Amino acid sequence: MSEQQNWDAVVIGSGIGGLVTATQLAAKGAKTLVLERYLIPGGSGGAFKRKGYTFDVGASMIFGFGQKGYTNLLTRALADVGEHCETIPDPAQLEYHMPGGLTIAVDRDYEQFIADLSARFPHEATGIRRFYDTCWQVFNCLDAMPLLSLEDPAYLTKVFFKAPLACLGLARWLPFNVGAVARQHIKDEQLLKFIDIECFCWSVMPADRTPMINAGMVFSDRHAGGINYPKGGVGVIAEKLVKGLELHGGEIRYKARVTEVLIEHGQAVGVKLADGQAIRAKRVISNATRWDTFSDADPDARAASQQLVDVSHTPSKEQVWRRRYVPSPSFLSMHLGVRADLIPEGTHCHHLLLEDWEQMEDEQGVIFVSMPSLLDADLAPEGHHIVHTFTPSSMQAWHGLSPKQYREKKDADAARLIQRLEAILPGLSEAIAHQEIGTPRSHRRFLGRFQGSYGPIPAMQLPGLLPMPFNRTGVENLYCVGDSCFPGQGLNAVAFSGFACAHRVGADLGLNPWALPQ
Q: Among 117, 133, 210, 234, which is most exposed with the fewest C-beta within 10 angstroms?
């Protein structure tokens, strides 16, 4: 069965990167269709409801919801299609609980954060100031220009004339990673480990493999725009983007699993669905990971992915990308409903627990905790709170288990995770009213992502963001968007990717306005 209607653009997947691309294109007048394999939009930026609780699928530490500048990409994406999210400001980005009893909360106020960190490392006060001020230099370059496609020479020319110093400043930092910059200013090994964990909390990489551009955005935007939680839960972002898409003539279809990108004469011309339906489009945009979009040269690896593009049409540069980047680990995650009396008044929403520096990159080494009902009480039934906790876990650790072994491992790992969390939430095990456990297999099943991964990480030390692919691919009229593209992981990063992809597609379709965004 074939659909005769010819779309301007078809987007595979309704993660935030895909939805930002779709809404931006719809706002430009493109006839846009989003195809989502699951029942709700948002991917790892979605939400689900259970027994009066609204649980975020992924993390709830959200950047990009400020009110000023070009870096508030979620705010801008919603506004461009006439939508707005009410947000609740978080007074701290994150409270770290580290080896040796070292505890640091990153205050929303920059000067307070610098003072708090300098009080713990007084001999490094000058280096602390210089390093984080350097991050502001990067951020200020980003915030001085509209963040659109770096693949469009016309855009780059216009933005250079608008902000030449910012462009030159940004280009300077593209080859650098955080670790090299930090060591120029800081010598204390424990403080350098803290900067490692500062990077790891959002990039799942230590400082030596975290691009300076990304750190400049995160380490500064948490103080500039701040961490702001969307009232109603993270899933509201995707819901409002879908509403904006539909208001601008676009469409989303659920339970529509794409199995193949249709290619004729070397060009992408549409997609094929699991039910056999073919949908034609002038441009095809994959919000699946690059592992799921393109075929691997290794047949064993191909068996573990979706392979939307067959081996014969997969560009050779995708194999180069596979050598440079590997999937980040997935997560063992628990969504808990707990008695409200467990959590003392004044407790921060977001926490990170690490008991041993040597285990930071190990299986289930770091524990992340998010308690969004401390910001929005309506997410949980009266007298209860949400504790969403997750720890990195690889698919390999869950491979080859029988159903009985799988259940036993889930229960044992969850019990161990709860026991470890007692260090920061004493009495947790006795206060649980509702519990759901997700594994890398759950993430693969519900999010349709290769190995349940939350994005690529460098397989080796690379020169900053320079090797990261952009939105165009080696197949004409086929584009990629999301965390497999520049600039990488995180909701604000994939929103950047969405803006860039829509701009590049809009340029190719002749839809972009001449003037830069204001």
A: 133
pLDDT tens digits for 480-516? 999 999 888 889 999 999 999 999 999 999 998 877 7
Helix (H, G, I), strand (E, B) or coil at 14: coil
Contact (CB, 8 A) for 233 and 371:
no
Torsion over CA of 172, 178, 181 and 182, rounded to 10 degrees?
A: 160
The angle, 0 to 180 degrees and rounded to 10, between the axes of the packed helices 491-509 and 16-27 is 40
DSSP character for 378? G
Spell out a b/e string for 480-504, using b for 16 or more CB atoms within 10 Å of the CB, else e: bbbbbbbbbbbbbbbbbbbbbbbbb
Closest Cα partner for 361 from 447, 485, 457? Answer: 457
In sequence order, the β-bridge partners of residue 253 are 35
Name residue 467's amino acid. P
What CA–CA distance (Å, rounded) separates 49 from 379?
Answer: 9
| Among candidate residues 111, 56, 390, the one with its CA nearest the CA of residue 229 | 56
Whole-angstrom CA distances from 95 to 89, 124, 352, 355 are 16, 20, 6, 14
Please state the pTM of the whole predicted model.
0.93
Beta carbons within 8 Å of 293's beta carbon, 6+ residues apart: 261, 286, 306, 308, 309, 473, 480, 484
Phi, psi of 222, rounded to the nearest 5 degrees = -65, -20
Do residues 66 and 72 touch, judged by C-beta distance below 8 A?
Answer: yes
